[in-house]
Each structure stands twice: as structure tokens, then as C-alpha cells.
Design goal:
The chain has about 140 residues and is mainly alpha-helical. The chain is built from six helices and no strands. The longest helix is centred in the C-terminal third of the chain and has 33 residues.
Length: about 140
């Protein structure tokens, strides 16, 4: 790694903050609180935070690029969960902030579904382009 490629101090600090947040999120996922959907959502948000922390510190860039699909796939999963079970959104906030399980949940579900699908498609397109460049 050349000096131009080395992350500066600010990037390293941000990377360690992301690593810490990722560890907390993954720890929340494996702690056993909530149902399986909650664990998938927490882990699905924690893994990209961990990968971002690694990337901001200049470590394992190829691994981070290969696993970049985990964030849009988690968003896609959240959209599917909200469309299949609209009451789940009100359970995420707890009893104090109940959300109407009608059009708001369906609207968020469709939005998450579209964003997640676009992210996964964008990642797949980027991978295809990178593979084509390596072959040429």
C-alpha cells in the first residue's frame, strides 16, 4: 500500500467508530432479544458497519467489496417483512410509539423493497463490470 492509499487519521477514527457500532449491532443480533426477524435486521445492519470500519482503515478492501450486497439485501428483507406482516413495524417501536399498520407500513415496505432491489442490482452490475475488466 502506497502512502497515497493509506487512510489518514480522520478516516481511521471513523473506521474504528464504525467497527464499534458494527460489533454492538451484531452483538444485539446474537443476544437473543426479539424474534428471528429482529435478529436478521440487526445482523444485516451490523455486518455492513463492520465492513465499512474495515474499509475505512484500509483493511480487506476486496472482502468488503465482495460482501457489500449485505446492506441492500437487508433493506430488501425489511421491505418484504413489512409487506408480509405490517403489524411488525409497530412492534419495532414498542408500545409507546405504535404505528398504524395500514398504508404507512405498506408504503415503507414498498420503499424498502425498491431501495433494496436497486442496491442489489447495482452491486451485481458493479461486480459484472469488474469481472469483465479483469478478463480484458
Amino acid at each position: 500500500m502506497t502512502d497515497a492509499e493509506r487512510p489518514d487519521t480522520g478516516m481511521r477514527v471513523l473506521g474504528f467508530i464504525l467497527l464499534g457500532c458494527g460489533v454492538l449491532a451484531v452483538g444485539r443480533a446474537v443476544s437473543g432479544f426479539g424474534d428471528w426477524r429482529s435478529a436478521v435486521l440487526w445482523a444485516g445492519m451490523g455486518v455492513p458497519l463492520l465492513l465499512g470500519g474495515l474499509l475505512f482503515n484500509g483493511w480487506f478492501a476486496d472482502l468488503c467489496g465482495a460482501l457489500a450486497w449485505t446492506l441492500p439485501a437487508t433493506i430488501l428483507f425489511a421491505g418484504v417483512v413489512l409487506l408480509v406482516d405490517p403489524d411488525y413495524a409497530s412492534r419495532l417501536d414498542g408500545p409507546k410509539n405504535q404505528m398504524d399498520a395500514g398504508w404507512q407500513s405498506y408504503g415503507l415496505g414498498v420503499l424498502f423493497l425498491l431501495l433494496g432491489a436497486a442496491g442489489v442490482a447495482g452491486w451485481a452490475y458493479a461486480v459484472r463490470r469488474a469481472l469483465a475488466r479483469r478478463r480484458a
